[in-house]
Amino acid sequence: MARPLFSAVLMMLLAVSPALGADEDLTQIVVPYGDLDLLSATGQTELHARLVNAASALCRPRWMRTPPDSELSAHYREVIYYACVGRVTNRALGSVVGAREARVVALN
Fold it and tell me: How many domains does the chain have?
């Protein structure tokens, strides 16, 4: 009994998912930095700002863009958001250091 019900729900979700694609969450952003001099403090600051901006977009999924239902929920969302931005930014900076010749970095 559970297997046919599960299959029916799965098929319904698969049929509905393309219709919901208009408001999809981002999964990757490519940040070019070929125009920056990474040996200067100005270039490093600009790269960091670009990475933080891209990480901010990645770390705001649809459920975080809806109003929180309580002050506690708002606090937890803020904690999750800043942790995500820091983690994604640090991972991207590690990719930049590891592949300087690429001049682009993909955040995901």
Answer: 1
